[in-house]
Amino acid sequence: MAMTPEAKVKKKVKETLHSMGAYFLQPIGTGFGSMGAPDIVVCYKKFFIGVECKAGRGKLTALQQDNLKRISDNGGLALVINETNVSQLRELIETWIKE
Predict the structure, then answer these.
(1) What backbone phi and psi angles, to 5 degrees, belong to 46?
(2) What pTM value is reported for the model?
(3) What percent of the chain has pLDDT over 90?
(4) Contact status, residue 91 vs residue 18, Cβ threshold 8 Å
(5) Is 75 left (phi over 0), alpha (psi -120 to 50) or beta?
(6) How far apart are CA 58 and CA 97, in angstroms?
(7) Beta strands 23-25 and 47-53: pairing type?
(8) How is the beta sheet containing 47-53 ordered, strand by strand?
(9) Which of 44, 41, 38, 2 is nearest to 19 (CA)?
């Protein structure tokens, strides 16, 4: 079974986070969960990070935008990662932590 473009992005994100030693989980979107929650929730060096993965021209839904804004408003890092910036994930996180 072939992976979707978004699944490929998620796989690369998880590989990067694993190599960094970060704790992360991938919430499953069900009727019992939080709608619009980031695809991957991360705790790294005492910091909270929400990662929304997109592929191609994928756009954030209003709920996804709201959740990422709430993360940012509360001092966390909210990222939208796609094929064009997935290789920069480690750098984005490390730079943000140093600020």
Answers:
(1) 75, 10
(2) 0.92
(3) 82
(4) no
(5) left
(6) 27
(7) unpaired
(8) 23-25, 40-44, 47-53, 77-81
(9) 44
Q: What residue has token string 């704790």? A: 23
The model's pLDDT over 63-82, given as tens digits with 9 standing for 90+, comes to 999 999 999 999 999 999 99
Closest CA to 24 of 63, 61, 73, 79: 79
If you write DSSP's letter for every residue of the chain in order, what string do you get? -PPPHHHHHHHHHHHHHHHHT-EEE-----TTS-TT--SEEEEETTEEEEEEE--TT----HHHHHHHHHHHHTT-EEEEE-TTTGGGHHHHHHHHHH-
C-alpha 28/C-alpha 37 separation (Å) is 9
- Residue 6 near residue 59, CB atoms below 8 Å: no
pLDDT of residue 35: 82
